[in-house]
Design goal:
Length: 745
């Protein structure tokens, strides 16, 4: 039977036929799905702030939607047309064009939708058109669109109507038409009061200077009631179940929105109060008192009243009345602590600390800085102010040569700045002061010859300033410190880059140009060094170091006339300093103007009759010019001057030897020269040896300038003056002994 049945059936059944998916209806549905997907992707990209991607997707959705329309028209499927999808696609396209600021294209897209009678409520899009005109500062056109939209909004949509009226008021304000703006804001406040309209209304009355209406509008602002804002909400929060899961509370979007609403409302109230308080009475003190009293009567704004008391103190400071400012802030201490929250109290103490610090009363500043931190440990500005007090103490101990105490207070200041950065990662005051603190600590350790600690602290300072640079790349102070530290660490390439950035920010700072010129001179880039020194001289033509460098540069270049200009300028600035006039005379000799050189030496001899160098050259010049009588006269003067100098040198040598023995006995036979730090990253050079000062006769001008330059070269970031690069030419002046060039070495 089984075999017979199988043979009769002819084997297994054939497979089911596949459904034809190419029918017009199915093709239209697939295309519609693609349009919906593109629409969703565009909206998601917009929410992620990927504006260009959102626009590209919107354009693709519009293209696909047009294909869908043509397909249905060709296949006689017009009854399946989806008007809502078409509206959504073109509205999204217009919205994305607006977001990308393609104003003409966006206006055209919105206009096509508005003119299409098939779209219900499309008239509301005139609000969007008005917003575009507002952004384009075409305020009359914006007002026209807002009013046309207002006519199409039913009275049931009063919330939207009042928002449109506020927009109309905003446009009138931008046009300077405050009266019409007031009418719009007043209508909005009468229909559905809101904080933004109330604040804008106060601004308009402030612009018109109407005191009474400012008071009345502020009272209306305080009387605004809303279901999301009120005293009863505070009670509900206070009575919440303590066992409620905190994680759930954090994820409560409604509570988050409520908190943001309250914060914005209080911010607007505070800004309005600060705006009108100095203007609503003849005396600004009375105005502040009136506003504070109104805020205190409204239980929702007690914290704003405390903020206004601080604002009152700050206004006193703007009037340069620090006494009343301090009195206003000190009054906080006398109030009931239950009425003032800890954060506000900390702010008051922080301002007091700051005022006393500026006045130089570090003791009181330190006291209130401590109180500010005790009230609110998470107040970054309080931590910075307290750190500044510790820094000031450290500097005081350093001046008294109590280096252990100075190091201790520097460390405390550093910890406070670090804590401030921990509280507020982008607190620029804390970061900058941390850099200064580490830099000061580095210089202290350098003075005490603790090289490892110096390196650690100077690199910590560099790290702080580089972090600040990432936040504020255009800060001259930040770039200056980075350049100086790199220069101090002898990283000349990085220092050069930092100086170039700094000069781009402060093109006329003579000190910066001179520093950069010194760095270039040390790198033997004399052309660029000259350019920067010359620019520095243009902006500050009395810097003696720059003048001496420029004079030396031109002498080395054998341009003695140009060098003479700078030495003459130096002689005018320092008329009692004989070396500059000696340099001028030397330049005259080099260019062959022997008469002018003789006259200059004679003028020097009148004011400095004991100057050996001047007398020596006078003898030689008179000999060369055949002036025998004058030669004998100056020869006798030179002999007397040499005898006097020899006596003085002998007496000084005896005094120095006796004082050296006494010092050795006191120190147990050893002595150490002091090497101290004098601010701004520069170090004192070691004092010269005693015997180097005991030359026979007065030290000549060249040696004096050379010593000054040597001191600067020993300093961090010091300037290198051009050294003599070739042998002196042989002449008849016997220059080997006297150093004819008279230049900084």
């Amino acid at each position: 039977g089984m075999n017979a049945f199988a043979s009769a059936g002819g084997g297994s059944a054939p497979p089911l036929e596949k459904k034809d998916a190419s029918s017009p209806e199915d093709e239209a549905r697939e295309l519609e799905k693609k349009v919906n997907k593109l629409l969703e992707d565009s909206a998601i990209a917009r929410s992620e702030n990927k504006l260009q991607l959102a626009l590209d997707l919107a354009k693709e959705a519009a293209r696909k939607e047009r294909q869908l329309g043509k397909l249905r028209e060709q296949k006689q499927l017009m009854d399946q047309m989806n008007i809502d999808l078409t509206y959504a696609v073109y509205f999204n396209l217009a919205s994305q064009l607006e977001a990308n600021e393609y104003w003409p294209e966006a206006l055209n897209s919105y206009s096509l939708i508005v003119k299409n009678k098939q779209y219900a409520n499309a008239g509301r899009l005139r609000i969007n058109i008005g917003n575009i005109y507002f952004k384009q500062q075409k305020y009359p056109a914006a007002i026209k669109m807002y009013r046309m939209a207002l006519d199409q909004i039913p009275h049931s949509g009063e919330h939207l109507r009042f928002k449109i009226m506020r927009n109309i008021g905003n446009a009138f304000v931008r046009m300077g038409n405050y009266q019409d703006a007031i009418m719009s804001y007043e209508a909005s406040m009468e229909g559905k009061p809101d904080f933004q309209s109330g604040f804008n209304l106060i601004v308009c009355y402030f612009a018109l200077g109407d005191r009474e209406k400012m008071k009345r509008s502020f009272a209306k602002l305080l009387d605004i009631k809303d279901s999301n804002f009120g005293e009863e909400n505070d009670d509900d929060e206070a009575n919440e179940d303590e066992d409620e899961d905190e994680a759930v509370m954090e994820e409560d979007e409604l509570k988050k929105a409520h908190k943001e609403y309250r914060s914005k409302a209080k911010h607007l109230v505070l800004q309005a109060a600060k705006l009108i308080a100095p203007k609503i009475e003849k005396d600004f003190v009375a105005g502040f008192d009136y506003i504070i009293e109104m805020l205190q009567k409204s239980h929702n704004y007690m914290d704003v009243a405390s903020d206004m008391q601080i604002s009152k103190a700050i206004y006193f400071l703007k009037q340069k009345n620090s006494k009343d400012a301090k009195d206003s802030l000190i009054a906080f201490e006398k109030q009931d602590n239950n009425e003032i929250d800890a954060t506000t109290m900390s702010r008051a103490y922080t301002n007091l600390c700051f005022i006393y610090f500026l006045e130089g009363n570090i003791k009181e500043a330190d006291k209130y800085g401590t109180k500010a931190i005790q009230s609110d440990r998470y107040n970054a500005k309080a931590l910075v102010n307290k750190g500044n007090c510790e820094m000031n103490k450290a500097y005081a101990y350093e001046e008294k040569e109590k280096y252990d105490e100075a190091r201790e207070h520097f460390t405390m200041a550093k910890e406070l700045y670090m804590e401030g950065i921990g509280v507020e990662a982008d607190c620029i005051e804390a970061i900058f002061n941390l850099g200064l603190c580490c830099k000061s600590m580095a210089h202290l350790e350098h003075m005490l010859q603790n090289d490892l600690d110096y390196q650690k602290n100077i690199r910590a300072a560099l790290q702080a300033f580089e972090k600040l640079y990432s936040i504020m790349p255009d800060s001259p102070e930040c770039n200056y410190n980075i350049a100086v530290i790199y220069d101090e660490l002898q990283k000349t390439k990085k220092a050069s880059v930092a100086y170039q950035r700094l000069i781009a920010l402060v093109k006329t700072d003579a000190g910066v140009l001179a520093r950069y010129g010194s760095l270039l001179a040390r790198e033997d880039d004399e052309a660029a060094a000259y350019e920067n020194h010359h620019e520095s001289y243009k902006f500050f033509p009395v810097d003696m170091e720059v003048i001496s460098w420029l004079g030396a540069y031109f002498v080395k270049s054998e341009m003695y006339e140009k060098a003479m200009e700078y030495f003459q300028k130096a002689a005018q600035i320092q008329p009692k300093e004989v070396k500059w006039r000696l340099m001028v005379a030397s330049c005259y000799r080099r260019i062959g103007s022997y008469q002018l050189a003789l006259r200059t030496y004679e003028e020097i001899e009148k004011s400095h009759p004991d100057n050996l160098e001047c007398l020596n050259y006078l003898v030689r010049l008179c000999k060369e010019l055949g002036m025998k009588d004058k030669k004998e006269e100056y020869q006798s003067k030179l002999a007397r001057a040499e005898q006097e100098q020899a006596k003085l040198a002998s007496m000084r040598t005896m005094q120095d030897v006796s004082s050296m023995h006494a010092q050795q006995e006191f120190n147990g036979g050893g002595s150490r020269r002091d090497e101290g730090y004098v601010g701004y990253g520069e170090f004192h050079a070691r004092a010269p040896e005693t015997d180097s000062l005991m030359q026979q006769g007065q030290m000549d001008a060249a040696a004096e300038v050379a010593r000054a330059v040597a001191e600067r070269q020993a300093a961090g970031g010091a300037k290198k003056v051009i050294s003599k690069a070739k042998k002196e030419e042989d002449d008849d002046w016997g220059d080997e002994e006297l150093g004819e060039d008279l230049l900084p070495m």
